[in-house]
Design brief:
It catalyses: L-threonylcarbamoyladenylate + adenosine(37) in tRNA = N(6)-L-threonylcarbamoyladenosine(37) in tRNA + AMP + H(+). The chain is of the alpha/beta class and about 350 residues long. The protein contains 11 helices and 10 strands. The two termini are about 30 Å apart. The structure holds 5'-O-[(R)-(carboxyoxy)(hydroxy)phosphoryl]adenosine (KG4) and zinc ion. The site of zinc ion has 7 residues, from α4.
């Protein structure tokens, strides 16, 4: 395996990710998270995330270089997430990447975080089987996006995204309603295993938007979250016990149903028999199972990178830059800045 040696920096949310790749080969992928600190507040506090990135960056870069057994001087390029994400958090990574690239005299590639998630797939062992076009659904605490990827380096189209909460955020908020700790996704997943997914019929947000071409692939989870909160409240007001496992299972089913339905609808409408899953919520067993089961019935092949590449990380950022370099793309000029709403 050969290709450009790239160090990638990811600081768009609460993970400080440093990854090093040589072309499509993964050399290191270190992740420092301020999750423990954020947990005290029940969610990501932007200022805490930015400060944690500042503290974690240098030791993380050193650790990644050591793990990959490469020196800064050997790098062919530096890559960084310039957006979308939390403005202050992004700024720390962008500043560090510029300083590193300028001081080393290396080219710098500013890349899009969402496209980076898609690039994670090329670092998987069977990357040779990667084919385009593919539909990709990215589900995390910060985003819920459905994309059509015709070419990773030049043609990625956003089909739709959440109009309010991200799916992971909905898991975190519903967990709080149920008295479960942050981050709520894994807690709900665990509680749901003992529950009945058909116990309560919670709303599937924007599922009827499928009639409107414009918003067919948008998602909404705040109505679902409110519906769960109201259901639980009514139980409590009536002095009845809350069946936590059933609520968790029914809520999880509603989220999974809408994610998988829209993703497979996009595959069908665009005639694309491939679906890539990404983002931290992919850790959800039920989501993986339902996606695999329904995709098989629809003749769609599903790709799920290992979780360490699905959650926010620097390796996917480095991998995307390596692809851009291999495709002959010029590096970014230093004029770019952090852009919290950067489009794909
Ligand atoms: O990609 P990720 O690690 O980073 C951020 O978006 O910051 O995703 C974290 C999100 C959190 O909202 C967490 O509750 C959710 O992913 N999550 C899950 C599961 N594991 C993590 N959601 C549902 N089921 C899970 N098993
Ligand atoms: Zn992400």
């Amino acid at each position: 395996v050969s290709g450009p040696l790239v160090l990638g920096i990811e600081t768009s949310c609460d993970e400080t990710g440093i990854g090093i790749v040589r072309g499509r080969e993964l050399l290191s992928n270190t992740i420092a998270s301020s999750m423990d600190e954020q947990a005290r507040y029940g969610g990501v506090v932007p200022e805490i995330a930015a400060r944690a990135h500042l503290e974690a960056l240098q030791p993380s870069i050193e650790a990644a270089l050591a793990e990959a057994s490469v020196s800064l001087a050997e790098l062919d390029a530096v890559a960084v997430t310039s957006g979308p994400g939390l403005a202050g958090a992004l700024m720390v990574g962008v500043g560090a990447a510029k300083a590193l690239a300028v001081s080393l005299g290396k080219p710098l590639y500013a890349v899009n975080h969402l496209v980076g998630h898609i690039a994670a797939d090329i670092l998987t062992e069977d990357a040779d089987r990667l084919e385009y076009p593919t539909v990709a659904i990215l589900v995390s605490g910060g985003h819920t996006s459905l994309l059509l990827v015709r070419d990773l380096t030049s043609d990625v189209e956003l089909l739709g995204e959440t109009v309010d909460d991200a799916a992971g955020e909905a898991f975190d908020k519903v967990a709080r309603v149920l008295g479960l700790p942050y981050p709520g996704g894994p807690e709900i997943d665990r509680a749901a295993a003992q529950g009945d997914p058909l116990a309560i019929r919670f709303p599937r947000g924007l599922s009827r938007a499928s009639d409107m071409a414009e918003h067919r692939y948008d998602f909404s989870f705040s109505g679902l979250k409110t519906a769960v909160a109201r259901w639980v409240e009514q139980r409590e007001d009536a002095g009845e016990p809350v069946p936590v496992a059933d609520v968790a299972a029914s809520f999880r089913e509603a989220v999974v149903d809408v994610l998988v339905t829209k993703a497979l609808d996009a595959c069908a409408r665009h005639g694309v028999p491939r679906l890539l899953l990404g983002g931290g919520v992919i850790a959800n067993r039920r989501l993986r199972d339902v996606a695999l089961e329904r995709a098989e019935a629809a003749g769609v092949t599903v790709r799920i990178p290992p979780l360490s590449l699905c959650t926010d990380n620097g390796a996917m950022i480095a991998a995307l830059a390596a692809e851009l370099i291999s495709a002959g793309r010029q590096p970014s000029t230093l004029a770019f800045g952090a852009d919290s709403t950067l489009p794909v």
